[in-house]
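User: Some background: our group keeps a shared notebook of sequences we're curious about, and every so often someone picks one and asks for a predicted structure to add to the entry. Today it's my turn. The entry only has the sequence so far, pasted here. Could you supply the structure so I can complete it?
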Amino acid sequence: MKIAILSRNKKLYSTRRMVEACQARGHEARVIDTLRCYMNISSANPEIHYKGENLTGFDAVIPRIGASITFYGTAVSRQFEMMGVFPLNELVAITRARDKLRSLQLLSRKGVGIPVTGFAHSPDDVQDLIKMVGGAPLVIKLLEGTQGIGVVLAETRKAAESVIEAFMGLQANIMVQEFIKEAGGSDIRCFVIGEKVVAAMKRQALEGEFRSNLHRGGSASLIKITPQERATAVKAAKVMGLNVAGVDILRSGRGPLVMEVNSSPGLEGIEAATGKDVAGMIIQFLEKNASPHKTRTKGRG
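Assistant: Of course. Here's the predicted structure to add to the notebook entry:
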């Protein structure tokens, strides 16, 4: 197969591992800088050009689209789909997962456990919003934040009011969530490929920190997940429509709660913690499933 990897940096661990996994299985891999792609949007013959070259002949595309380039990156991914190239994750599923509020609403509608979450626009509703999620301590999240940036733990009601009002004053979109104390500053990253959890790790926050993201200094270790956690992760990925996903779960007194579903999960932490060839499993999925014009939406999202 000829596989395109949309990535801004070919030196990133996840990108390098994708290339290595492709080559190890006898495929041709090409890393393409998403922002250097430009498109001929034609109903007769849609094209993608890259540094003066017309990109053709690809069997599959692996979108590794950073949050900061979601708009342009998804446009490029859509164009590949319109050309009949099989995407690892479809554009519609990626945009669904990237919208934190929408993704939680979809998970809630399908009965997937999530932390109690509040969303409001007016500062006049802040006190009732805090009460809605069970009061302080609570977590305030910027909807546009990634890797734990823009996530604040407000330990008192007064602090919560001040932070929420400050964000609202800056016209920032935020959501407010209950704080799951029993999680103890840890969460579980379940790596889902094709409706199966292929690897799982526990991420533990630093002492005095509640965000367990590895980018924030958290540590990762191998963990055995329960059948309920496994089923929750698979269902969450399926609700989003993702073939490959990193599902972040909190262990709570009422069962597993999904914090987030990531459409471009990193490989470094999960491969180091589990010792598994996750990149190879992703390429195996493409081998079994990639065929021309096989996507559900065909770029119509």
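Suggested note for the entry: The chain is about 30% helix and 25% strand. Residues 2-95+285-289 form a domain with the Rossmann fold fold (CATH 3.40.50.20).
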